[in-house]
Recover the amino acids of this structure.
């Protein structure tokens, strides 16, 4: 299928997908809500009406305070779950989609997140799982899913390929070379997808669009106050900036979940071209917009469902600092202005300015400013969450104040050095977004090859045990899919008899460990 270009817009946008080997639970479910298996004899010329977001958005105002209100309004029009429907029709057949899932390690939600991709209400797609380390426990989770869905069009790629400094690109490269469809969806391991999400993303891939992205948000109700702070951050401050940037057509896509045209990536050498950067998502979008293509946002958010992302406030703060460092390396002239879009700093400046000009009590001005900002953030979070909050208003107030009062400190701390820690690896950022890896003093591994088996096995055991301590009672015993890993965890739990996983694991017969992971 030739690629659509500016001079070739008369070509059909969607290639005819002939590979129907995947046994997902049905495109017909989307049409009829029938829970039976999909009807593959769909008419070729049939029109499908799909829900799309309202295209009407409000104009931006000059001040940052009013841009908060506009971000909330734009959120109504962009992130829609059940409200008013605006329909447009596209012709079948829909294009085939290759879904690339880079995996590193396991957590309590990994199996559920991956399982969701076997149940997309979409006629033709393939799943390409990528694992860098040949002894990564995620391999066992993927293989168990293959046993559960033997008819699925899915493959597993182990080992990666050293094409740059970006470990995610290195991990995905073999899978990208095996892609067989025109549209490529890069989806992180911690992303959960609803049944109609893929269809929604494809519906936004218009003739002049090269990339469809999703605004990050938090899926489900996780335990702990730190998860509330994470939800408030992604539903207020991050959402406000993300939606405002989208409204102004500023490059803002995140690499957590991005649908792209493969032919346009191939024009610049494929994804390996972006292996020089850590923020490959930013440069994906920049490559497209520089060539005159548009990017579009899906009407559904990217549901982050990693069990490890909300473990502590320090984990969230480290993520925020990493993103600030990346933005500062790529667009420093914009990043340095970010603190002036924060509620507390902007409110203080506004209060002093109003007091100087009109002799009005600055404290009263500041309180009114914060109250209006708070109401707008609350409304925006409810809009994105599509309903009332799943936690109390008191928890929201406390979490919101923590986020807003620490924003400037986190920003300043992020700029104190240019080093970025990504999992267990350290990188130094350079101007323009380039990065180089800093080897650890005791790290003797060859960066061009996977770990040796003994070293990787030790690493796997340590990961499994450390994650068992973190996940605790929420971790199902079927995650430990080898007898060695099972025994190591049991022995460690015996030494630390207060470990909450002990009572769950010690009572489980070893035979359960070898059984396929059940569908939740």
């Amino acid at each position: 299928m030739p690629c659509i270009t500016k001079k070739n817009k008369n070509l059909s946008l969607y290639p005819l997908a002939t590979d129907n080997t995947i046994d997902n639970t049905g495109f017909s479910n989307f049409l009829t809500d029938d829970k039976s298996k999909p009807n593959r004899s769909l008419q070729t010329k049939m029109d499908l009406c799909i829900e799309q977001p309202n295209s009407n958005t409000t104009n931006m105002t000059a001040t940052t305070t009013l841009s908060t209100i506009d971000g909330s309004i734009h959120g109504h029009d962009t992130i829609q779950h059940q409200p008013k429907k605006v329909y447009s029709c596209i012709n079948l057949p829909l294009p085939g989609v290759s879904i690339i899932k880079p995996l590193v390690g396991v957590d309590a939600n990994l199996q559920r997140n991956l399982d969701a991709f076997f149940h997309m209400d979409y006629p033709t797609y393939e799943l390409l799982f990528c694992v860098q380390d040949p002894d990564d426990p995620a391999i066992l989770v993927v293989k168990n899913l293959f046993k559960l869905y033997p008819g699925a069009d899915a493959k597993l790629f182990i080992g990666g390929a050293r094409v740059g400094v970006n470990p995610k690109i290195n991990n995905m490269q073999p899978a990208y070379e095996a892609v067989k469809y025109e549209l490529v969806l890069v989806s992180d391991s911690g992303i959960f997808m609803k049944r109609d999400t893929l269809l929604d993303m494809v519906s936004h891939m218009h003739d002049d669009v090269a990339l469809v992205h999703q605004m990050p948000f938090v899926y489900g109700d996780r335990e702990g106050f730190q998860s509330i702070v994470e939800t408030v951050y992604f539903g207020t401050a991050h959402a406000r900036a993300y939606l405002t940037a989208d409204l102004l057509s500023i490059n803002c896509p995140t690499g957590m979940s991005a649908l792209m045209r493969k032919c346009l990536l191939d024009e610049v050498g494929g994804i390996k071209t972006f292996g020089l950067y850590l923020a490959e998502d930013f440069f994906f979008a920049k490559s497209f917009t520089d060539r005159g293509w548009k990017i579009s946002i899906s009407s559904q958010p990217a549901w982050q469902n990693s069990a490890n992302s909300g473990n502590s406030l320090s984990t969230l703060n480290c993520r925020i600092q990493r993103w600030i460092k990346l933005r500062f390396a790529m667009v420093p002239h914009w990043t340095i202005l970010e603190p002036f879009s924060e509620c507390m700093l902007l409110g203080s400046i506004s209060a002093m300015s109003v007091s100087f000009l009109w002799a009005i009590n600055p404290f009263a001005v500041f309180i009114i400013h914060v109250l209006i900002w708070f109401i707008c953030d609350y409304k925006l979070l409810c809009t994105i969450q599509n309903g009332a909050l799943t936690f109390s208003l008191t928890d929201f107030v406390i979490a919101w104040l923590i986020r807003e009062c620490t924003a400037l400190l986190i920003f300043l701390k992020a700029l104190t050095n240019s080093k970025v820690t990504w999992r267990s690896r350290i990188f130094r950022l350079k101007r323009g977004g380039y990065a180089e890896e800093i080897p650890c003093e005791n790290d003797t591994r060859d960066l061009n090859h996977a770990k040796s088996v003994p070293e990787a096995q030790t690493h796997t055991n340590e990961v499994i045990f450390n994650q068992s301590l973190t996940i605790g009672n929420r971790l199902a015993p079927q995650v430990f899919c080898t007898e060695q890993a099972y025994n190591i965890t049991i022995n460690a739990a015996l030494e630390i008899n207060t470990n909450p996983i002990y009572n769950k694991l010690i009572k489980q017969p070893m035979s359960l460990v070898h059984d396929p992971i059940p569908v939740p």
Remarks:
- Residues 44 and 92 are 5 Å apart (CA to CA).
- The chain is about 40% helix and 15% strand.
- The domain at 47-307 is CATH 3.90.550.10 (Spore Coat Polysaccharide Biosynthesis Protein SpsA; Chain A).
- Confidence is low (pLDDT under 50) at residues 5-73, 80-87, 444-520.
